[in-house]
Amino acid sequence: MQATFTPEEKQFLLDLARKTITEAVAHNALPKFDPHGLSNGLTESKGCFVTLTAGGRLRGCIGNIMPAGPLYKSVMENARNAALRDPRFTPVRAEEIDEIHVEISVLTAPQPLAFSSPDDLLAKLQPHKDGVVLQIGFAAATYLPQVWEQLPDKEAFLSSLAQKAGCAANAGRGPNASVSIYHVEAFEEPRK
Fold first, then answer.
1. Phi-psi region for residue 96, left (φ > 0), alpha (ψ -120 to 50) or beta?
2. Which domains does the chain have, with CATH numbers?
3. What per-residue confidence (pLDDT) applies to 33?
4. Which of 123, 104, 90 shows the shortest CA–CA distance to 50?
5. Which of 76, 119, 145, 156 is spaced 20 to 30 Å from 11 by Cα?
6. How far apart are CA 147 and CA 144, in angstroms?
7. How far is it, in rounded angstroms, from Cα 89 to Cα 127?
8. How many CB atoms lie within 10 A of CB 164?
9. Closest to 47 (Cα-Cα) out of 29, 62, 25
């Protein structure tokens, strides 16, 4: 995905996510914020994820695939939810905040990926570029493009995604599976 945010906009969103995490952990609230004067890029409705790591390990990741209001507001809500409401982790504690590393991924709108067979699907997926939404009946799950770093094999990636959706590992290759792809512009705080 071509860069659409200026360095200043990226820094603003990272700072906003950091302030939100601090306020959420301390007071379970979003920081007071006046959006007046923000650029169009920051107020446009976009899907986004906020990923928190500590010591290189995932500590929370929450987001919305579809646009759900102004980007700055989605970043705030997803930062709070990643810190306090990711069901895979205990809530971030105040003494952990300095160890938390923040990454933001801004998504393009998902587009259906047409494929004629499981092999055709595998051929069309682009590791490290495509974020993938896998829908199997009423179950669905997504992986950001960054997940390809941990799961570079296409079959393993799809199997893990099917299991994340609560389905059998091979369900992503079944007749009830549909796939949409999206791309992200990801940016993160400097590593300490």
1. alpha
2. 7-107 (3.30.700.20), 111-183 (3.30.1490.150)
3. 82
4. 104
5. 145
6. 6
7. 27
8. 15
9. 62
